[in-house]
Amino acid sequence: MPNQLSTPTGEFEQVASPQYNGSNSTYSIDQIYKPQETRQNTITTSCLCRSILPVIFMICIVIGILGAIGTFSSQGKVLRTLNNPLSLNAETLPPNAPNVSCASRGTFLSNASCKVCPKRSKVFAVYWETPIDCLDFTKSSAATYVTHIYWSFAWMETNGSVSNILAGKLAMIKTCIAQARSQCIKSYISIGGVNMRWAFLSLTSSSKIADFASSAAQIVVGYGFDGIAINDVSGNLHSQGNWKKYAGPNVLAYLTSLKVELNQLPRSNDEPVYELTWDEFPTSLNDNCDTTFGDYQRCFDVRVASIVDRINLLMYNAPSSVDYDNYLDVILPTQWAKVVNVNKIVLGGCIGPVGSPGGCAYGAVPTSTQLLSYATQGAKNYGGVIIWTGSRDFIVNQGAVTIAMGSTGGYLN
């Protein structure tokens, strides 16, 4: 960033003032630059100064603009920018970023050398609200259990493309991602949320789907994410009464397009593949999943499971806490485990109270016993667990729920 202009001297400030008429000043502009020279030299210098100042000023402006938009890196390399004026160079970190010397994703610094991160057998993921700084969290004991941070949310434009401007400071988010990476914690961008339900339903043409997928992949590159989490919570009510029939084909198309875009992103041989996850309602395999007026209700298309890397079952926002026991004890083993690879199933719980920022949206709040059961069963019989939201738990509880679930489920190893 260019240095801020210093405060002008009293003499120059007076000369530059619009109220100065040129007759009462002790110094002329020539005397300010070279007061000891002869008049001939002074005039010559004055002319040169007057001539060159605008040139210097314009050069500074151009350099400042180029630096601000990220056209060139400090090494002189041209950086990739998005279609949005905001430049998101994945190689550039803010000045207060942690000292991460390992350029490759999936590696960490140990004894002055970069090593491949150990593979964690189970997922412990937390949703994290983008406006909230996660740096203190990544340095806390709660983070030792976490494998993935899902940054929520990226929103979609009316043309189907994904906005690359998140609700949070760019420098803060990239610093958090870098710190998490140095601790072998992956960061995903979660696209969607309840306000984007209709945006997903608008992805009805090949051009919109292509724009959606390519813009989403650019965000991954720009911020340095490790994957994408799709939070499409549209249902039957706004899909002509049958989400699977009318919205399902477009969902399969945009997920496939996303997967292709992610697979085409450049990466070194030692870097992990970019991953894609899907959020789903636990009731989507029930017999009544095709209820015409079901708002947050739909039937699951099993072909989704063959495209994505994991399916996050949102086992919260149910009418009664009894529903959560039913999800865990009945729905999961008798329905989901029969149609989806259990290692792809991640159990999701929310942290209350209802309506609080980053808390449960509606319905019953899962009890602490139920959340611990999610963690235990997720580690033992399924692919892991995910919390909505880790940001709330850390701010309100100093990460107590994350620690309890992580330790109970044995996610540290």
From TrEMBL:
Keywords: Membrane, Transmembrane, Transmembrane helix
One Pfam family per UniProt: Glyco_hydro_18
SUPFAM superfamilies assigned to the protein according to its UniProt record, in alphabetical order: (Trans)glycosidases
Region described as Disordered: 1-23
Keyword Membrane applies: yes
InterPro entries xrefs: GH, Glyco_hydro18_cat
Residue ranges of every copy of the GH18 domain listed in the record: 122-413
Transmembrane segments: 52-72
Keyword Membrane among record annotations: yes
GO biological process: carbohydrate metabolic process
Protein name: GH18 domain-containing protein
Organism from which the protein derives: Thraustotheca clavata
